[in-house]
Please model this.
Amino acid sequence: MASISFTDANGGVTIDNDKAAPVDRFQGWVPLGEPIGPLGHALGTGIPYRWTFREDHGAKFMLPYIPNSSQSDLHRLRMHLLGGGSITVDTEDEVSNTYTCYLWPGSNPEISTPSKETAERTLTLSVLNSEAEPMVCVY
Model:
């Protein structure tokens, strides 16, 4: 079961949707990557060049079908990330990828309103991998 876990001042939390496979997976997984440094264009040719200080890697994904009873944990997660805290993203994919992550620069954790039918929520995150390597999820 795919999950997100973290520890804040109130203790440890694990967020998942408690569903059976394959509904227990992250959805909409998109790897993110960005070179960090100034981009310029050569005066004579116009060809771009970049002085790269580092490369950021991360992912954007959703965890749907989270029970409304997890609302407090979702709020704690949001505040933890916005405060600069780290999380562990456990994909439970074919190769058991696990990542330690922070909030992707300029992004904001999104928690949906509960659905009318099931009162379940969807969490949407963009995260930065603490290891400078691509984040993949192979279901």
The chain has a mean pLDDT of 96. The helical segments are 71-82. The two ends are 12 Å apart (CA to CA). The chain has one domain: 3-129.
